[in-house]
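DM between two lab members

TW: hey, do you still have the Glycerol-3-phosphate acyltransferase entry open?
JB: yeah, one sec
JB: this one, 207 aa:
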Amino acid sequence: MDFLTNQNILLYLAAYLIAGIPFGYLLAKQFAGVDIKEAGSGNIGATNVLRVVKEKDPKLAKKLGAITLFLDAIKGALVILVAMMLDAPESVLWTLAVLAVVGHCFSAFLFFEGGKGVATGFGVLLIMMPIPALIAIVVWLIAAKGLKISSLSSLIGLVAFIIASYLIYPEVPGIGSHAPIWIIAFIIFYKHIPNIVRLFKKEEGKV
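TW: and the structure you got?
JB:
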């Protein structure tokens, strides 16, 4: 029974389950009547919501895409903020960050399928390392505006975060290791493998 009342365990479960809520899928289904898992790239993130819903209603697509982006970013961060209020140690906070990305990418509500992890990843990293995350977001936005390829822009932003994190935090406060960052980066990279293949084949779509 101690397992069910342990604060850290409850936080870990909350991080995984809340981050696993497929907001993009639910919003597109409810307000546009489309199943984004069966259309476009099949991804549940904001980019595919925008791409698929745009075919029916461009204005609605922008709204749903923006809401999806916000909810996917905030859902992982919320549990970390609660944990901070409970004075959880840095090791627990970083574990929550990793579990939030895992929850989004391998959602229990979608038979362990999910999104690419970019919005959720940047959401938790913005809480854990604000300055590197802001640098990465600026790089991401510039790349997106210039390239208009969501996947490539996201990966460029991720690389920018990793570089900035090492420059600003040679040793991560509280844990002394960049391991959680590399785990998050690996998951996001892994989920982007199909996109990377399409990029090399010059078949990746623009937004």
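TW: got it. The mean pLDDT is 93. Residues 58-85 form the longest helix (28 residues).
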